[in-house]
Amino acid sequence: MNSNDIHIQVRTRYLSEQSNPGESQYAFAYTITIRNLGDQAVKLLSRHWIIKDDNDKVEEVQGPGVVGLQPTIEPGQEFVYSSGAVIPTEFGTMQGSYEMQLTDGTRMQTPIPAFLLSQPHSVH
């Protein structure tokens, strides 16, 4: 089993009610679906995010689990969670990785492909 057996899908949403463009605060929610297509259960141990705004300012976020959980995802199952980010520009990107542990104790890094944070109907 390798990181290709973990499929990650991301949906983002601009949160106008939590944003304040006059103060350079743009809030975004993201929902992530993690599907285990492999033959072993995996436990999500930690996350590492690289958040980049439109001014090329980079913020890194690391920590255990996601939204306070370290879920175990069985073969053929999925785990879905939502979280958010606030950046100082209208556009930004997020990418990173999850550290996963297989049933046999092996650890692997699962990449999270870059995704766009942007207001709806905007072009960048």
TrEMBL record:
<dbReference type="InterPro" id="IPR007474">
    <property type="entry name" value="ApaG_domain"/>
</dbReference>
<dbReference type="InterPro" id="IPR023065">
    <property type="entry name" value="Uncharacterised_ApaG"/>
</dbReference>
<feature type="domain" description="ApaG">
    <location>
        <begin position="1"/>
        <end position="124"/>
    </location>
</feature>
<protein>
    <recommendedName>
        <fullName>Protein ApaG</fullName>
    </recommendedName>
</protein>
<dbReference type="InterPro" id="IPR036767">
    <property type="entry name" value="ApaG_sf"/>
</dbReference>
<dbReference type="GO" id="GO:0070987">
    <property type="term" value="P:error-free translesion synthesis"/>
</dbReference>
<dbReference type="Pfam" id="PF04379">
    <property type="entry name" value="DUF525"/>
</dbReference>
